[in-house]
């Protein structure tokens, strides 16, 4: 008996020892630097190959190319950058750039040594490789697939000034014969769709031999289409590959910048190829002070009757300066030399000229917005056209009607003119526009709609035939025949709401989704809140493609665009849709079979489904599948109904070494406003039923739709990474928030506090150790919540709004506009201005309740925040400090709304976790929290933390 007890005791000890040995370690921030994961993807045109890059967050990567339905796999090192891989159209070759290794990149930063990419071309049948050094760009030869064109980087000794020649060598490499042909001084090149023609431009020293050329890839014959002392750029083939357009620039002493003209090439036939050149300086009808825009890519109309391009401001040189320069020109070299050295004395008037800005109440855009957007305004491209037959130039867009969309088939264009409403829209966010129809043959403009509500979109969705469009007004969708002007109510006979039921912004009857038109232009595809409707253009025929999914709380989440160059939804082909259940958060994929009127759900489960692809030339489908615990991996099927899917790859190979979340629970609860809501509660790693855990409540707006999304370990721009906290023994709560107008902060309280209480009631959340964190809008709500509740032991707020009254009229520096429109019609949900709504503004401002704060707060606010003014963080920090409340604010110099620089992201991620570990787990307080850091000691402090985020000394 004693022996049996001893054996049982030893066995129990053994089990306990094994259990401890098998318990995985928690992630550290150093582990995040080494975290290995996949990025990017490519599917070969025949669907038989897939490729992706993988490797650590910091370090060298590899490219994997593998057979989709086989185990054959190739692996190639690609350096520290995940450049995309391209397959040839015949699926026989793959090509990708190889960047410098991570160590080389770090060394080069210190020495300023230039680094160059290599190109690797792989023959997929046997993995034979051909490499090329110092590669800038490359392209396979379209459908032909016989060639690859490789452009090389310029020599280090090449001139780098603005007017220096940009051309470099391009190698045409025949993939089958291995023969190659070099073309020198190429600035741009592009194959047509078939790959039998190569258009390229030459930009050589002294502009010698500059021009645009066309090479017949079958015969090797090259035709010079245009030669000049000029620069050629923006080569753009049409979709059929039988015509292209480009720009040509010439120096002109009258203008500050080069003067551009448009070239159209069509009817390709060697030396007999047709060429059209439109030079604005030769056209008396061309608007004065304008020129062809060098940043807008020109293109042909489908019927090749018209060239479309942009125009913008073209500034003349000062005539007096030009004259004085020309008069001072002398044949005497000595005089020339002196002229270069002698600098004119600055004029007294210039020295004493005031440097100021005048802000006028009638400005449609604030002066700050005009400053921020100055370069955009100068280069703004006004859509224009040139009809070949009658040599007619037409400026389609102008300073009032800036936004012009050329419709398919180029029969009409749609113009949007908000000039009469721009000032009001910038004040209260409620935007309106006049909509015009432009006949592209005559240039005649006709107003279709006056003062169309544009905050909700206010755009026309144009059918592929270019003759009909759909639009939304006051809760209903309509169609309009652009030829006759006839309109029809598309949704009037449908007993369903087309007002977005989840949009709680201050928007008049926000619309549901419009998925556009069928490819034959006969049907509009429009969503209500759950179902997708197929509606004839006249509104008389209606079919529900999802068959009353509303009753099951299931919605069509969107259509996958899987067909190359598609024009609308081709109902003669199988169409695929994302499917989502808003109640249980299950997701899946559905198919609308060819010619059918019902979407069949192929599968739906507790996973998230991402990228969905179809092989261009094969019946192979691929998609990603993941959940809160399993990282995204690719599956492929050779069946249109996606049966018998094969797992193609794996991801995050190191995850098994670490402790990971044990699961997620979806909690139903009721807000204090009486709304039925949900919250996602993620279980910590090594979760044991009956034990309560420290919990981070992460907030923004509605988050539970992401219930099954995978959280990739990373250094985030706001400091919080869910995977990291779950691995380290925290539970994470993500509640949904529904807003009432004029109570954004109080709405957060009404939703978040009951969610926390419901989570505590599960027994999983330790009610004495709950913290809250949010960034930006979430930072505002965090800052406000701690003025209204003491349910949280600690809080961390990133870039928070803290005074809604002062914030309302401050500048959103990233755009230069005010926050007023954002407050009244977007996220702020406070309207009108505080002078008529003082109680609501004050009631929802953290600073006005600051005396009630009892929760320690970690603030992040960067000094160059262009979204939430830095003064908002300063005001809250100083108020709390004055009241002797525990608060620390961290500012990363030069950073904007989120943290961009990797060392800063690492640093804040580590500090936030140190803070929460101290507050919720009882670990020692970090010195920067408990004592602070003297400015003179900051450098030393940072040096001692060099390894904390995985950064090497």
TrEMBL record:
Residues 1-21 form the signal peptide. It comes from Pedobacter polaris. Keywords: Hydrolase, Signal. GO terms for biological process: proteolysis. SUPFAM superfamilies: alpha/beta-Hydrolases, DPP6 N-terminal domain-like. This is S9 family peptidase. It comes from the Bacteria. InterPro entries: AB_hydrolase_fold (IPR029058), Peptidase_S9_cat (IPR001375). Residues 753-921 form the Peptidase S9 prolyl oligopeptidase catalytic domain. Residues 320-348 are annotated as: Disordered. One of its GO terms (molecular function) is serine-type endopeptidase activity. The keyword Hydrolase applies. The keyword Heme does not apply. PANTHER family: DIPEPTIDYL PEPTIDASE FAMILY MEMBER 6 (PTHR42776:SF27), SERINE PEPTIDASE S9 FAMILY MEMBER (PTHR42776).
């Amino acid at each position: 008996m004693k022996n049996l007890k001893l054996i049982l005791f030893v066995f129990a000890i053994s089990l306990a020892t094994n259990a401890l040995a098998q318990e995985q370690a928690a992630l550290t921030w150093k582990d995040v630097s080494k975290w290995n994961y996949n990025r990017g993807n490519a599917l070969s045109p025949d669907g038989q190959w897939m490729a992706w890059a993988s490797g650590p967050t910091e370090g060298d990567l590899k490219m994997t190319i593998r057979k989709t339905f086989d185990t054959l796999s190739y692996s190639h090192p690609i350096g520290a950058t995940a450049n995309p891989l391209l397959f040839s159209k015949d699926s026989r070759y793959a090509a990708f750039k190889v960047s410098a290794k991570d160590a080389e990149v770090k060394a080069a930063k210190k020495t300023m040594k230039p680094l160059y990419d290599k190109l690797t071309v792989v023959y997929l049948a046997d993995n034979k490789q051909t490499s090329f050094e110092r590669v800038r760009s490359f392209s396979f030869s379209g459908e032909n697939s016989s060639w690859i064109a490789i452009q090389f980087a310029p020599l280090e000794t090449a001139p780098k000034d603005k007017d220096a020649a940009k051309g470099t060598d391009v190698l045409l490499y025949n993939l089958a014969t291995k023969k190659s042909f070099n073309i020198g001084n190429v600035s741009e090149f592009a194959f047509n769709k078939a790959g039998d023609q190569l258009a390229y431009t030459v930009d050589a020293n002294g502009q010698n031999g500059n021009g645009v050329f066309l090479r017949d890839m079958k015969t090797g014959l090259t035709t010079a289409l245009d030669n000049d002392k000029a620069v050629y750029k923006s080569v753009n083939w049409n979709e059929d590959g039988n015509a292209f357009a480009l720009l040509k620039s010439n120096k002109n002493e009258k203008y500050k910048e080069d003067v551009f003209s448009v070239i159209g090439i069509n009817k390709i036939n060697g030396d007999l190829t047709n060429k059209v050149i439109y030079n604005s300086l030769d056209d008396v009808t061309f608007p004065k002070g304008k020129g062809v825009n060098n940043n807008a890519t020109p293109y042909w109309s489908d019927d090749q009757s018209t060239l479309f391009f942009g125009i913008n401001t073209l500034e003349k040189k000062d005539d007096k300066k030009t004259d004085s320069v020309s008069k001072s020109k002398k044949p005497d070299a000595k005089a020339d030399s002196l002229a270069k050295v002698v600098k004119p004395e600055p004029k007294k008037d210039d020295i004493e000229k005031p440097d100021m800005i005048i802000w006028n109440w009638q400005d449609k855009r604030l002066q700050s917005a005009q400053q921020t957007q100055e370069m955009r305004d100068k280069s703004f491209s006004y859509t224009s056209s040139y009809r070949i037959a009658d040599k007619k130039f037409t400026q389609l867009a102008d300073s009032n009607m800036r936004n012009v969309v050329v419709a398919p088939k180029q029969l009409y264009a749609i113009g949007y003119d908000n000039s009469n409403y721009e000032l009001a829209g910038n004040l209260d966010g409620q935007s309106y526009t006049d909509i015009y129809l432009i006949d592209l043959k005559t240039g005649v403009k006709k107003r279709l709609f006056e003062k169309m509500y544009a905050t909700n979109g206010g755009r026309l969705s144009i059918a592929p035939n270019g003759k009909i469009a759909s639009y939304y007004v006051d809760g209903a969708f309509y169609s309009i025949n652009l030829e006759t002007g006839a309109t029809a109510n598309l949704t009037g006979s449908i007993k369903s709401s087309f007002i977005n039921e989840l949009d709680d912004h201050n928007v008049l009857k926000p619309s549901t989704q419009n998925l556009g038109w069928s490819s034959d232009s006969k049907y509009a595809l429009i969503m209500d809140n759950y179902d997708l409707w197929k509606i004839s253009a006249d509104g008389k025929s209606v079919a529900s493609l999802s068959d009353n999914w509303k009753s099951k709380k299931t919605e069509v989440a969107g259509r996958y665009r899987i067909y190359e160059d598609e024009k609308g939804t081709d109902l003669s082909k199988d169409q695929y849709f994302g499917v989502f259940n808003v109640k249980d958060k299950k997701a899946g994929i559905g198919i609308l079979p060819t010619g059918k009127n019902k979407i069949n759900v192929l599968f739906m489960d507790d996973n998230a489904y991402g990228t969905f692809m179809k092989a261009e030339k094969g019946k192979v489908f691929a998609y990603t599948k993941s959940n809160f615990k399993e990282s995204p991996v690719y599956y492929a099927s050779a069946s249109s109904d996606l049966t018998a899917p094969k797992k193609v790859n794996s991801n995050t190979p190191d995850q098994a070494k670490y402790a990971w979340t044990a699961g997620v629970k979806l909690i139903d609860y009721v807000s204090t406003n009486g709304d039925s809501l949900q919250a996602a509660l993620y279980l910590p790693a090594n979760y044991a039923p009956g034990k309560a855990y420290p919990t981070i409540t992460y907030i923004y707006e509605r988050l539970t739709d992401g219930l099954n999304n995978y959280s990739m370990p990373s250094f985030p721009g706001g400091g919080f990474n869910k995977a990291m906290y779950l691995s380290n023994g925290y539970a994470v709560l993500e509640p949904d928030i529904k807003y009432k107008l004029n109570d954004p902060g109080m709405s957060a309280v009404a939703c978040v506090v009951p969610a926390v209480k419901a989570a505590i009631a599960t027994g999983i959340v330790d009610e004495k150790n709950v913290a809250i964190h949010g960034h930006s809008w979430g930072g505002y709500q965090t800052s406000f919540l701690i003025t209204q509740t003491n349910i949280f032991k600690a809080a961390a707020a990133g870039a928070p709004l803290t005074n809604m009254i002062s914030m309302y009229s401050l500048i959103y520096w990233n755009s230069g506009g005010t926050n007023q429109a954002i407050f009244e019609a977007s996220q702020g949900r406070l309207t009108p201005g505080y002078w008529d709504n003082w109680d609501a503004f004050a009631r929802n401002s953290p600073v006005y309740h600051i005396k009630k704060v009892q929760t320690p707060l970690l603030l992040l606010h960067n000094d160059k925040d262009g979204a939430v003014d830095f003064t908002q963080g300063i005001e809250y920090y100083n108020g709390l400090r004055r009241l002797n409340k525990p608060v620390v604010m961290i500012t990363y110099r030069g950073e904007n709304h989120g943290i961009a620089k990797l060392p800063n992201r690492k640093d804040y991620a580590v500090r936030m976790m140190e803070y929460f570990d101290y507050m919720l787990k009882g670990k020692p307080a970090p010195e920067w929290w408990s004592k602070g850091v003297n400015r003179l000691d900051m450098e030393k402090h940072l040096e001692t933390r060099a390894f904390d985020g995985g950064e090497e000394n």
